[in-house]
Design brief:
The complex is a heterodimer of chains A (about 250) and B (about 350). Chain A is about 35% helix and about 30% strand. Chain A has about 250 residues and is α/β, with parallel strands linked by helices. Chain A has a six-stranded mixed sheet with strand order 6-7-8-3-9-10, with helices on both faces. In chain A, strands 2-1-4-5 form a four-stranded antiparallel sheet, with helices on one face. Chain A is globular. Chain B has about 350 residues and is mainly alpha-helical. Chain B is globular, with a radius of gyration of 21 Å. In chain B, helix 1 (about 1-40) runs parallel beside helix 12, helix 4 (about 110-125) packs across helix 10 (about 250-270) and helix 5 (about 135-155) packs antiparallel against helix 6 (about 165-185). The chains are: A alpha/beta (about 250), B mainly alpha (about 350).
């Protein structure tokens, strides 16, 4: 299973956000992080992959151009998770997953929903109202909604935004485990470059709607690239546990 | 361990569903009681016993009593139920598709637009020979209601237009339509003016069996479609992108929902005039009772709306002895404090 992008372009009116973007096949069982500064086109690319933006080009999943598929068919293969579950929804946790699953049909919705919660270790929240949860717990529930659909590709738009350190790691660990266990592909927009370096198998660095680098974190993360893309003076060092760490010293004028 | 967990969660979920079924049934029972109370109240002093006997066996009635029961009390009470249901159902769907707790046919100007359309048809009849004048009024109210909902939809889709902009646009629509209705009233002859003023007051007194049949038909046809769309609407409440990413065609869902909202609110408003706050308050009370699952929220909203208007109908007969106050005045008087409470509870989230 692999996902490739061929000459993808997205425009809002006359303004082109992404121009002729191509990426070679991203293999299964890997977590791909889309990184880059604000306005680089990361979320737009993810939304285009999910079919939420009008696009030109091809999105090839296992040799099939999914951009030509109908709405429902495409959503069954590529599951998109928006940034946050909105507040003020009078639903329970389990109920919210069952309600989401009900739209696409299927059997044993309750069992499937509960299993998704269990896999993320939050089955004890099943009976809680959504509004009583913390931001991190809500994000895990949103992830459970996604996993319950059993998709082949997970598209995660800033899954750790507004989360504390504990939940940032829990969400990313959960995604990583699931990706490896079920040989899925996850593409996540991440702002935290260190989180991307520690959890992603592959980094795609976007700048002004173009791919400026892609590869493993070790191949991609270099001070020159960070200076060019983010406008910062930074060092890339290995910590005592042999992990890459980006240490930002100052913003370049 | 996992099996115990899933069994416990299943039990809890089923209990929740049963609780909602009972709540909806309870609302239906309360509505039945309220309708009986509405039927029993009136200036003629006819008691419930005689009234029920008259309904079950009309032959025992005098000519006067027959008119009171069949031409006044029954149409009046049933119209309260149907109009209340239609407005609250429209309000619930509107709140779901616009993701706005303050959306309702009244607050966002749909009722006012329908009133403008109806007023235009009263002041300047369309002259369609094959359509009864009352149906022409309904048609114009429907067309204007649709236009207002389409305007709201266009506004909601504008980039950068938040909830506040939408509510402000709705308020602007209310004032604009009301101003134009006032202009029509100013230019109208005395006869037409009387019809216009009476129409905008929002009264159940103009109920008759034809109107009841049409409104009942509209509700009977649309409610199954609303219930069919309920799972997708529940998902839409969790966010537009989430719904789309689950394969929901939100554009089609909204369009179909807007058509239902227009038809429901326009038919209701066209038949009884402007009746405020039922479409706003009904869904909120229902949401407090049964939560956000639209499979329960939509019927519960319809029942709460019907109950509120039925109770308002009773109040409209009791406030001033010997006078039936137009029910639109009663719902506005009761609805304003509830509306203020809702706004204050939401605070900055408005």
């Amino acid at each position: 299973m692999s996902l490739a992008i061929e000459q993808l372009s997205v425009s809002y009116g006359a303004r082109t956000i992404i121009r002729d973007l191509s990426l070679p096949a991203m293999p299964a069982a890997s977590l791909v992080a889309l990184v880059g500064p604000n306005g680089a086109g990361k979320s737009t690319l993810l939304r285009a992959l999910a079919g939420l933006e009008r696009m030109k080009g091809r999105v090839v999943l296992e040799g099939e151009d999914v951009s030509r598929l109908g709405f429902a068919e495409r959503s069954r293969r590529l599951a998109y998770m928006p940034q946050q579950l909105p507040p003020g929804i009078a639903l329970g946790v389990l109920e919210s997953i069952v309600a989401a699953l009900r739209v696409s049909g299927g059997e044993d919705l309750l069992g499937t929903a509960y299993e998704a919660l269990r896999q993320l270790g939050i089955e004890h929240l099943a009976e809680y109202p959504l509004d009583s949860l913390s931001g991190g717990q809500r994000q895990l529930v949103a992830l459970a909604q996604l996993l319950a659909r059993n998709p082949r590709v997970l598209l995660l738009d800033e899954p750790t935004s507004a989360l504390d350190l504990h939940y940032q790691l829990r969400v990313m660990d959960a995604v990583r485990e699931r990706v490896q266990e079920h040989r899925l592909l996850a593409v996540a927009v991440l702002h935290d470059i260190n989180l991307a370096a520690s959890h992603a198998d592959w980094l795609v660095v976007l700048h002004q709607g173009r791919v400026v680098a892609s590869g493993t974190p070790q191949q991609v993360l270099e001070p020159q690239l960070l200076a060019r893309v983010y406008g910062v003076e930074a060092r890339v060092e290995r910590c005592s546990r042999d992990r890459l760490q980006v240490l930002v010293d100052r913003a370049l004028c | 361990m996992a099996q115990t967990g899933v069994a416990q969660a299943t039990r809890h979920y089923r209990r929740l569903l049963w609780r909602r079924v009972w709540l909806v049934t309870g609302l239906a029972a309360l509505l039945a009681l309220s309708v009986l109370g509405d039927l029993a109240s009136g200036a003629s002093g006819m008691g419930l016993g005689r009234l029920l006997q008259g309904i079950l066996d009309p032959a025992t009635l005098s000519a006067t009593d027959r008119v009171i029961i069949w031409n006044v009390r029954l149409p009046y009470s049933l119209m309260a139920v149907l109009v209340g249901s239609a407005l609250a159902l429209a309000g619930a769907e509107m709140q779901a598709i616009l993701d706005n707790p303050l959306a309702s046919p009244f607050t966002l100007g749909v009722s006012s637009a329908a009133a403008l359309g109806a007023s235009l048809a009263i002041a300047y009849p369309l002259g369609i020979a094959w359509l009864q004048p009352s149906m022409q009024v309904t048609l114009m109210a429907f067309v204007f209601a649709c236009l207002s909902v389409l305007l709201l939809q266009a506004m909601a889709r504008l980039r950068g237009a938040g909830v506040e902009s939408l509510v402000l646009f709705g308020i602007a629509l209310v004032f604009s339509c009301n101003a134009l209705v006032s202009l029509l009233q100013l230019l109208a002859t005395e006869d037409v003016l009387q019809q216009l003023v009476f129409w905008t007051l929002g009264s159940l007194a103009r109920a008759d069996w034809n109107k009841l049949a049409i409104l009942a038909l509209v509700l009977a046809v649309l409610l199954p479609f609303s219930l069919r769309a309920a799972p997708a609407l529940t998902l839409l409440r969790m966010g537009e992108d989430r719904a789309r990413s689950f394969g929901v065609d939100t554009r089609r869902l909204r369009l179909a929902s807007l058509l239902r909202i227009s038809l429901l609110s326009a038919t209701a408003v066209a038949f009884v005039g402007t009746i405020g706050f039922i479409g706003l308050v009904g869904p909120h009370i229902a949401r407090l009772l049964v939560g956000e699952d639209q499979r329960f929220l939509l019927p519960a909203s319809a029942l709460v709306g019907a109950l509120l208007l039925s109770l308002s109908s009773i109040a409209s007969k009791l406030i001033l002895p010997g006078v039936i106050v137009p029910v639109g005045i009663v719902t506005a008087l009761v609805g304003v404090p509830v509306f203020v409470v809702l706004v204050f509870r939401r605070g900055r989230k408005l």
